[in-house]
Specification:
This protein is α+β, with helices and mostly antiparallel strands. The protein has helices spanning about 10-20, 55-60, 75-80, 80-85, 100-105, 110-120, 135-140, 165-180, 245-265, 300-305, 310-320, 395-405; strands spanning about 5-10, 25-35, 45, 65-70, 95, 125-130, 150, 160-165, 190, 200-205, 210-215, 220, 220-225, 230, 235-240, 275-280, 285-290, 305-310, 330, 335-340, 365-370, 370-375, 380, 385-390. The termini are far apart.
């Protein structure tokens, strides 16, 4: 069956998904809502908010959409899956993503930690507190060693996790978070034991019963080289990850993936879509830092490069409970992405900077993130602007290709890290 797909979102992740969807022999038409200055190369941008469910319903009905792929977490946490499932007209249109209950794995850090505890999934020790139990939280902090991890329970645009070096600062930050630092998102705070190790991102696609493990990736959050400075949405990514070998991934499968899916079924939670496992390798043992209920960004930009499969076919398998029957392989080459960001990011930055060099021939795939198309050309429209992604027989050659491409692209204030993948063999 050929599908008319509506992809919700506007970032680099959605651009990479659109690129992959556009290659499918099973794609009739692709719409991206709202998309960005580069997604219209792969489909048609439409001016819809991913959170305006009523407008989305009208569009789905009037344009014969047969599948909805949700790129970012907000519509999932808000219940778009349930909105479709409960509507007589929309119920026949599959939404790729979990139910509202399943989306709480990302929407509530407290729920996620409790879920892991209930199902024996390895994770850091924790305590959830609110304004009425803040003293319990401060007592728990005193059972931990520095540094201290404090997480806003709810969604906070990727900014709700703070790692602080001293106990006095942890006490102060806890008070500030509960006092409204992140609005209602931090009315409850999860205090966690700090885990020391190296992180990676594991992506699972499931139809609720069977599952496929996508290429493993590692992203780089800090703005500065050597992983210094402020956290960002992600400055680059690499796949494969050297330490995520067969032995490590066998542990991930038996201790984390299978218990997660079994736990969802035991709790009668409908989950058909992507599960992002943010893992840390602690002395060879995988532990869960966090769940996300969609693909990561910028990891999607390398995962899609290495995914040898018809993505529409895989998603149809998710929708129909036949994922186990769908073909999937992984490209053996390395893939890297290097983010070009606006000057000043992740702090304040200016938008509307004209981007030059995008039309030049390149061996890279340049996914747009924060861009907008104007009469003058493509301009910057966000902090993370372009995800310059490349293949290579090894990590060094893939990075060299991306850096060469970046040397031909320019906009006022452009910045990128030159050490993506520095901590992997």
């Amino acid at each position: 069956m050929k599908h008319t797909v509506l992809l919700l979102g506007s970032g680099g992740r959605e651009c990479a998904l659109a690129w992959k969807l556009s290659q499918s022999a099973n794609l009739e038409k692709l719409y991206i809502a709202p998309g960005n200055g580069g997604t219209d190369r792969y489909g048609e941008n439409v001016a819809l908010s991913p959170l305006d469910f009523e407008a989305i319903k009208k569009f789905v009905v009037s344009h014969g959409v047969t599948m909805v792929l949700v790129g970012n977490e907000d519509p999932l946490v808000a219940g778009i899956y349930d909105y479709f499932a409960d509507d007589a007209v929309l119920a026949k249109v599959p939404v790729i993503g979990p139910s509202k209950a399943g989306a709480q794995l990302e929407g509530s850090k407290d729920f996620a930690k409790g879920f892991m505890e209930r199902h024996g999934i390895p994770t850091a020790r924790y305590l959830s507190v609110d304004a009425t139990t803040v003293e319990n939280g401060k007592a728990f902090l005193r059972t931990l060693s520095a540094p201290y991890v404090l997480k806003a329970d709810g969604l906070a645009a990727g900014k709700g996790v703070l790692i602080v070096p001293t106990l006095d600062e942890a006490d102060r930050v806890l008070d500030e978070m509960l006092g409204g630092m992140f609005g209602s998102s931090s009315s409850r705070v999860v205090i966690e034991e700090f885990l020391s190790g190296i992180e990676c991102s594991v992506f699972v696609l499931t139809d609720g019963t069977s599952y496929k493990v996508l290429p493993v990736a590692k992203d780089y959050k800090r703005i500065g080289e050597g992983d210094t400075g402020l956290n960002t949405g992600g400055m680059g990514a690499v796949s494969p990850v050297s330490f995520a070998d067969e032995e490590f991934m066998a542990k991930v499968d038996s201790r984390i993936i299978r218990p997660t899916l079994d736990g969802l079924r035991r709790e009668n939670i409908t989950y058909r879509g992507f599960i992002f496992l943010g893992l840390i390798n602690v002395g060879g043992e995988p532990m869960v830092i966090e769940y996300n209920v969609r693909m990561g960004d910028p990891e999607t930009e390398v995962v899609m490069l290495r995914l040898n499969a018809d993505l529409v076919d895989l998603l149809e398998g998710v929708a129909t409970g036949t994922l186990a029957d769908r073909a999937m392989a992984i490209d053996p080459r390395y893939a890297v992405t290097v983010m070009l960001v606006s000057g000043g990011y992740p702090g304040s930055y200016e938008k509307g900077k004209l981007i030059s060099g995008l039309a030049e021939p390149t061996r890279s795939i340049v996914f747009h993130a924060g861009t907008r198309r104007t009469d003058e050309g493509i301009v910057t429209a966000g902090g993370r602007v372009l995800a310059v992604s490349s293949y290579g027989d090894d990590k060094a050659s893939a990075l060299a290709t991306s850096f060469d491409t970046i040397s031909h692209i320019a906009f006022d204030g452009a910045y990128h890290r030159r050490d993506i993948g520095f901590d992997l063999k």
